[in-house]
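@channel sequence for tomorrow's demo:
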Amino acid sequence: MEIVRLSTRRRAEMVDITRQVQGVVERAAVREGIVVIQSLHTTAGITVNENADPDVQHDLLAKLERLVPHEEPFYRHAEGNSDSHLKTGFMGPSATLIVSDGRVLLGHWQGVYFCEFDGPRDREVAVQPVAAER
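structure tokens (generated this afternoon):
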């Protein structure tokens, strides 16, 4: 298992971590199996989505903000980031992907994203490759 460290620059953003995840798989020399990618934070998630057009990231973040606004009169969490916790709950804290022939199996337009909902912050993502038993 490796920890990928990153720094976010905005309150909400999607950071493409596909290369870092692939690098961990290569260093682990996993040829066939899976890789688990997990955010180590309650206000940041992981997703697989399009990595060709940055408008997709913009649209996803904009829709989440409309669905779960930063401020609501019924929020009680004293830190003022209830929306970040909710968005992470909707997005999910992790993803499990197939590793085939030493590569993370992704579709042509897919990438692995760290989803920041309470930045800017220094963040950590755990990446655990698991080799298939023969």
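heads up for whoever presents: The CA atoms of residues 55 and 61 lie 10 Å apart.
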